[in-house]
Amino acid sequence: MTVPTPDTETTIPLPRSGDEDPDPAGVPPAPGTGPASLRARSVSAWFGSHQVLDRVSLDMPARRVTALIGPSGCGKSTFLRILNRMHELIASASLAGEVLLDGEDIYDRGRRITHARRQIGMVFQKPNPFPAMSIYDNVVSGLRLNGRRAGRGEKDALVEECLTKSGLWKEVRDRLRQPGGALSGGQQQRLCIARSLAVRPRVLLMDEPCSALDPTSTRRIEETIAELSEEVTIVIVTHNMQQAQRVSQLCAFFLAEQGTPGVIVEHGPTTAMFRSPRDSRTADYVQGRFG
Ligand SMILES: Nc1ncnc2c1ncn2[C@@H]1O[C@H](COP(=O)(O)OP(=O)(O)OP(=O)(O)O)[C@@H](O)[C@H]1O
């Protein structure tokens, strides 16, 4: 796939949607454990010839919540999808740059896509449990997708552990065999978080996880994020400035001005970004003057 790229960048040839994992060796390196750092280095992205991100670099430290903020269309979701190799599922997509998970490039040619996906989970804007599948089976479904076998006792313990961590256990422990689709929207989102946790990711990406939820459910998810941040690194896209301040320790402000690709204007500790931003565009955005 040919796209216009800056001379200094290396365009990574991406497999088209549906292609097999490009792992010539066939033996994936064993993933590490525990929260990992993510580092994006000079990441650019295109859809066809339309460039949507331009040399974005960002450190997302382990055991921290990093919030990505910015007006609609500036490339936050694209950036998030690049962090776990979902961008390449889109036929016209290409990218340049590096994404390092604890120092190792997830786009390294010798790495399977599943190597990144197992370690870097994703929770989407709209809760997407398997609606007809039971709550219990929804949680353990990730194991099956990963080709992992587990005995009944191990699964029972995992279901309880993950539902507890996602703050849903007490509400559903007596109805684990009921369908996931029968839960409220907020409960479904917490079920999706539990499903992501079941494969023990080292990083959890969240793309506006509360935008479809009422204030009470939103609050509950925010509590869950706070509880999880010790055991998984979290990167969250949010349009809600109060939420960014409540849940994150670090923040990055994305902007795509007048048809130019998205860039990070400013990033740093969330308190500083909101109290004393260095850039006037950040100040205008966090104070609600545009976007
Ligand atoms: N599948 C796609 N095909 C073509 N262009 C796309 C695709 N997805 C996103 N884009 C374009 O990429 C740019 C960045 O979109 P993206 O969704 O990453 O922005 P965003 O900041 O997350 O926006 P929002 O806050 O509205 O979700 C936009 O111009 C969008 O139209």
List its traits.
291 residues; alpha/beta; Rossmann fold; 6-stranded mixed sheet; 5-stranded antiparallel sheet; 10 helices; binds adenosine-5'-triphosphate; PstB-like; ATP-binding; ABC_transporter-like_CS
SSE arrangement:
Layout: E1 11-12, E2 38-47, E3 50-60, E4 65-69, H1 76-82, E5 93-101, E6 104-105, H2 113-119, E7 120-123, H3 135-145, H4 152-165, H5 169-172, H6 185-197, E8 203-207, H7 215-228, E9 233-237, H8 241-247, E10 250-255, E11 263-269, H9 270-275, H10 280-286
Parallel strand pairs: 4-9, 4-10, 7-8, 8-9
Antiparallel strand pairs: 1-5, 2-3, 2-5, 5-6, 10-11
Helix pairs in contact: 3-6, 4-6, 6-7
Bound molecules: adenosine-5'-triphosphate.
Adenosine-5'-triphosphate binds next to helix 1.
Number of distinct helices: 10
Name the ligand types. adenosine-5'-triphosphate
Described by strand count, sense and barrel closure, the largest sheet is: 6 strands, mixed
How would the global form be characterised? globular
* N to C succession of SSEs: EEEEHEEHEHHHHEHEHEEHH
Question: At CATH's second level, what is the architecture of the domain at 34-130 and 203-286?
Answer: 3-Layer(aba) Sandwich
The structure class reads alpha/beta
Average pLDDT metric: 88
Over the alpha carbons, how many angstroms does the gyration radius reach?
A: 19 Å
DSSP strand content: 15-25%
Q: What is the CA-CA span between the terminal residues? A: 33 Å
Identify low-pLDDT runs. 1-29
CATH superfamily of the domain at 34-130 and 203-286: P-loop containing nucleotide triphosphate hydrolases
Indicate the percent of residues in helices: 25-40%
* Beta strands, count: 11
CATH topology of the domain at 34-130 and 203-286: Rossmann fold
Side by side, the strands of the main sheet go 7-8-9-4-10-11
CATH class value of the domain at 34-130 and 203-286:
Alpha Beta
